[in-house]
Amino acid sequence: MQIELEIPYPVSVNSYYRSVKGRSILSKQGRDYKKHAAQLEHLRGTFPETQRLKVSIQLFPPSKHRSDLDNYAKSALDLMQDAGVFVNDNQIDHLVIRRRSVLKGGKAIVTIKVIRENENTP
Question: Can you give the three-state secondary structure of 47-113, one letter per residue?
């Protein structure tokens, strides 16, 4: 099984969390991004806990601003987990992130594919 979905451009991990009184909390920007999970509710339960996954994320940045690709995976994966597309991002055994062309407003295209089904093996 495989699905492809479009999500808003992810929040960089550098902006996703804030430190408050020595505790790391989700920032306002992070909380606002997670509200997009409601748009994916129709995909809830698509990938049960027993499935091991390959996830490919194609990033279409909103500007030519230089950034590290790996900083965007966390918020994108959390968004899909919060929506219930998969149970936990620890189901992912293969993760690919690719930068694509600049696109006004930015977006990400995510492909999720089952690579095996197994209850006992991570």
Answer: ECCCEEEEEEEEEECCCCCCCCHHHHHHHHHHHHHHHCCECCHHHEEEEEEEECCCCCCCEEEEEEE
Q: Does residue 121 carry a pLDDT above 80? A: no
| Full-model pTM | 0.89
Strand order across the 107-117 sheet: 2-7, 107-117, 51-60, 92-99
Above 90 in pLDDT, residue 118? no
Q: What is the 3-state secondary structure (H, E, C) of 29-50?
A: HHHHHHHHHHHHHHHCCCECCC
